[in-house]
Amino acid sequence: MSCSPGSPASGPWASPNSRPPTSTTASGAWASTSERAPILPRPRLLPRALTCEGAPASESPCFREKGPAVDDWPAISVVIPTRNRTGLLQETIDSILGQDYPGDLTCVAVFDQSPPDGSFALDAPGRRVVVTANTRSPGIAGARNTGVLLDDGELVAFCDDTDLWLPHRLRSQVTALGAGHFATCGIELFNDEVAFARCVTAPTVTLRDLLRGQLPSMHPSTYLMRREALVDGFGLVSEELPGGYGEDYELLLRAARYGPITNLAGTGVRVRLHNASHFSVVESSETISSALRWMLERYPEFAGAPGGYAQLAGKIAFAEAALGRGSQALRWIGRTVRRRPWEPRAYLALAVTAGVPAGAIVGRLHRMGRGI
């Protein structure tokens, strides 16, 4: 499949005046985009055939139902963590309840550090909305786990509170999942002006693939998991990660340790672009450094994946440099270049230790459509 980066989406989701957004980022840890590069960068460490990052939405591989027909569609619990976004939450819920999926769906809206809004509750045949407060640790990880444990659907899906599902998403994923434990699909990044598809084209993603570099297109709003595997197998979302940074990537790593992840290349979820990332690299440097060091300690497999190790180590080096801890930054710069001498984050971190403001570097990268 050929992907043409930088072309605006055409088809039903395209804006009549489509043009690249300026300085917008997707929710979570997405990098900023700009007119020079209206899409997020392709992970450089992965085989070119594995990803279709940046394809126009109209060129995303179509969804194809794989595997045998499902006679008994399992009940699905859809967990939506939310905080102070009631205006967009209803649109998200409507996109889930409007699935062409024949089985029962229960949306669990988990209000994190904000009072639950009972007006979202619904009890209709085959379609329910349950509203609850986060009863575990504050943050998205605790909120997701609260929702997982509240309901009892055979399958569990995640969705962020500003994202939208296309009507075919669940039917196609459940068919493809079969007896598997975890499935993902492609996404479409969008705002009022433009839409771009991002996907992994491989039908399965392994731990080795994930260790070689993060795959941002495997977005948590695409996750579909078997409850038994999530609760009693590879485990719930980690509430130990400092600040919750990278919790979605860490969950993928654990799930891939458990077994290969099923993937559909077609777009099933629309991820809304926002004006600011949840994690600002400079302001959250302490959290980023702590979380990534935590991840490297708990995943010794990175020792056999020099590119993936260098990517994380380079981020740590930059965070340490931004914090003014020059000796620690230099130590992590050394670890980075020993694994991959051409890792750009190492040299950006070195520039910060030499006195270049970290914020200036991050701002320039964002204007170029890139991030640390």
Features:
single chain; 372 residues; alpha+beta; Spore Coat Polysaccharide Biosynthesis Protein SpsA, Chain A; 2 domains; 14-stranded mixed beta sheet; 14 strands; globular; disordered N terminus
How are the secondary structure elements laid out?
Elements: E1 24-26, E2 32-33, E3 55-56, E4 76-82, H1 86-97, E5 105-111, E6 122-124, E7 127-133, H2 140-150, E8 155-158, E9 164-165, H3 169-177, E10 182-190, E11 195-198, E12 204-205, H4 207-211, E13 224-226, H5 227-232, H6 247-258, E14 261-274, H7 285-298, H8 306-322, H9 326-339, H10 344-353, H11 358-367
Helix pairs in contact: 7-8, 8-9, 8-10, 9-10
CATH topology of the largest domain: Spore Coat Polysaccharide Biosynthesis Protein SpsA, Chain A
Main sheet record: 14 strands, mixed
Distance between the termini: 28 Å
Indicate the structural class.
Answer: alpha+beta
CATH class of the largest domain: Alpha Beta
Rg from C-alpha positions?
Answer: 20 Å
Protein name: Glycosyltransferase 2-like domain-containing protein
Region (Disordered): 1-38
Domain Glycosyltransferase 2-like: 77-230
Organism: Streptosporangium minutum
